[in-house]
Amino acid sequence: MSVVPAEALQGSRAAEPAPPAGLADDGLAPRARFLPSLAAVYRAQLSRARVARIPLLFVATFQSIGIMILMRGVVDRGGSEARAVVAGSAVLVVAFVALNLLAQYFGQLRAAGGLDHYATLPVPPASVVLGAAGAYASFTVPGTVVTAVVGSLMFDLPLTHLWVLGAVIPLAGAALAGLGAALGLLAPRPELATLLGQLGMSAALLLGVLPADRMPGVVQYARDLLPSTYGVEAFARTFGDRPDWAVVLLDLGVCAAVGVASLAVATWAYRRAAVR
Questions:
Q1: Cα gap 93→91, rounded to integer Å
Q2: Which residues contact 125 (CB under 8 A, 6 or more apart)?
Q3: How confident is the model over 159-217, as pLDDT tens digits?
Q4: DSSP secondary-structure letter at 212?
Q5: Helical residues (DSSP H) of the chain, grouped into ranges
Q6: Which of 71, 139, 186, 188 sits in a 20 to 30 Å window from 154, CA-based?
Q7: What CA–CA distance (Å, rounded) separates 248 from 258?
Q8: How many Cβ atoms from other residues are within 10 Å of residue 138's Cβ?
Q9: 181 close to 269: Cβ distance less than 8 angstroms
Q10: Distance of CA 19 to CAs 10, 22, 28, 29, 31, Å?
Q11: How many other β-carbons are positioned within 10 Å of the β-carbon of residue 152?
Q12: Distance (Å, whole) CA 80 – CA 67
């Protein structure tokens, strides 16, 4: 029986190659950082959603313009009710995509096993939700601007502060997209996800476009719970002769806080659906 010196064993261990730099102890690649993952998911989803951008813009925009034409017969020009109709119709374009289409997308993705693909990638769950939501919401910008311009001309409202849409669209879009993604991920079947998305868009239509002072008290409380309400209020206030910018910023801040909360719920729903 041969005896191997301890020094030889130590030398053989020292000669073993070290794992490549950047790999974890278990040999797997480290998880990607949030911002690069978000950019990658956003580009991928943007290229996929680009196929349906023309029908999406056509339906969402002309739906809102048609609602304003109907409301033109019962709402006077230039008043507070006209401001509510135009602001609500503009944000409704965002709601159509963020609530209705995004709920359908995540519902179908879950039913088809698409979440398993993302679960195998080393990307944070929040980047998947935000990337998909941002890609779909990007197509709402032209339709929202066109709706706001057409509505302002139709109801004799000033076009001076339309730049506020640069803040209203992403903040209201984030709040509604988080809600739409959560509905699609939590629904047990894709048909139910589609139904919930359509109900959410109907709520945004009724509670966002109709003037608040014409609603019953109970409905006004329900309106305060809708994430897009604060974006509608912020945009509607800018049509005044002297907008109260402090109140506008407050509404936008509330919309941003609701957006963070709804996206956090959507991220939790994604983790819950991915492990099942």
A1: 5
A2: 267, 270, 271, 274
A3: 888 999 999 988 888 888 888 888 888 888 888 988 888 888 888 888 888 777 777 77
A4: G
A5: 6-15, 34-49, 53-71, 80-95, 102-111, 114-119, 125-138, 140-154, 165-186, 190-209, 217-225, 229-237, 245-274
A6: 139
A7: 15
A8: 19
A9: yes
A10: 18, 9, 11, 11, 17
A11: 19
A12: 17
DSSP 99-117: IIIHHHHHHHHHHTTHHHH
| Residue 244, amino acid | D
The structure tokens listed for 176 are 């509604």
Which of 89, 105, 92, 99 is CA-nearest to residue 52?
105
pLDDT computed for residue 164 by the predictor: 92
C-alpha 245/C-alpha 249 separation (Å) is: 6
CB 94 within 8 A of CB 137: yes
pTM above 0.70, yes or no: yes
Half-sphere exposure at residue 1, Cβ-oriented, CA atoms within 13 angstroms: 1
- Those residues with Cβ within 8 angstroms of residue 165's Cβ, 6 or more apart along the chain or in another chain: 90, 144, 145, 148, 235
If phi > 0 it is left, if psi is from -120 to 50 it is alpha, else beta; for residue 27 that is left
Nearest of 57, 35, 266, 257 to residue 144 by alpha carbon: 57
- Counting as low any pLDDT under 70, the low residues of the chain are 1-32, 48-56, 275-276
